[in-house]
Every structure is written in structure tokens, then in C-alpha cells.
Specification:
about 0% strand, single chain, about 160 residues, mainly alpha
């Protein structure tokens, strides 16, 4: 029984650890990367910033089905009216202004990644992820594992 429950808990712990290790590796690579953000990536940052300002002003936005500000990453995932407004302002910027925005956005991204990396490395993040991995279905699997362990242990023909 202890082996069955230990296997479930151990598997969940290892899954959480592997997930966080992969996130740490990805974030570290992004921070250390010497590759500059492209102007297209800067545009998405500009769009995101414009959207955040609209939300702060209390505007009601018509999001694509199933999409929210927190989930939007690509242009088509933002409200069309916001994309149109931001595109108009973006096109009005000179190439030098776009480059300045790109450089500032890149710096901001790297700083945020560094602070996010510190959070991901924290013990609290591991605890939260480990807890989040357990669900009601795990009670069923745990009970099945315990029943199976006891039924195998009761069998005389295995000795």
C-alpha cells in the first residue's frame, strides 16, 4: 500500500520538478540570449500595451471567442478594434521611434523574465505546482492502488 501511494505522490512530485526545470531552462535561455527582439515582436508588445491602457480606462472590449487579455499572445487573439487603433498609432511612429520602443520593450521583457525566473525557482512555486497537480481523480486512483495492493497481498498463490 505504501508503495502504491508513494508511487502516485512521487510521480506527481517528479512531474512538477521536471516541468519547473524545463521552464527555468527556457527562461534562462531567453534572458541570456543575445538575439534582439524583432520589430514584429515589438509590435505585439505595443499592441499589448495599447490593450492594457484601454482596459485601465474601463473600455468594454469585444474579445475573440474564448480569449482574454491574459491569454492573448498573437495579433488575431486581440479585439479587432484595438488592433486597428494600435496599428494606426504604430504606423504613425517613425522608424527611430519604433526602434526605441523595441529596445525599451526588450529591456522590460528581460527584466520581467528575470523576476519571473526568481519566482519559478522559489520553493513556494514548487509547493503550489505540486498541490495543483492533485485532483479528485487522484483519490479514485489512490483508492484503486490501495485495493490492488491489498488484494495482491492477500493472495496465497503468490508466495
Amino acid at each position: 500500500m505504501l508503495l502504491a501511494v508513494g508511487s502516485i505522490v512521487g510521480g506527481k512530485y517528479l512531474s512538477a520538478r521536471l516541468y519547473l526545470d524545463k521552464e527555468i531552462e527556457t527562461m534562462t535561455a531567453l534572458i541570456q540570449s543575445s538575439t534582439a527582439l524583432s520589430i514584429e515582436e515589438a509590435w505585439l508588445g505595443y499592441l499589448d500595451q495599447h490593450t492594457a491602457q484601454a482596459i485601465e480606462m474601463g473600455r468594454e472590449l469585444d474579445w475573440p471567442k474564448g480569449m482574454t487579455y491574459e491569454e492573448a499572445e498573437e495579433e488575431h487573439e486581440y479585439p479587432t478594434e484595438i488592433v486597428a487603433e494600435a496599428a494606426k498609432k504604430w504606423k504613425a511612429l517613425s522608424p527611430a521611434e519604433r526602434e526605441t520602443f523595441r529596445a525599451e520593450w526588450e529591456q522590460w521583457m528581460r527584466e520581467n523574465l528575470a523576476s519571473d525566473l526568481a519566482l519559478v525557482r522559489s520553493k513556494e512555486m514548487m509547493k503550489e505546482l505540486f498541490r495543483a497537480m492533485f485532483d479528485r481523480i487522484d483519490i479514485i486512483f489512490g483508492a484503486m492502488a490501495i485495493v490492488a495492493a491489498f488484494s495482491i497481498a492477500k493472495r496465497d498463490d503468490l508466495l
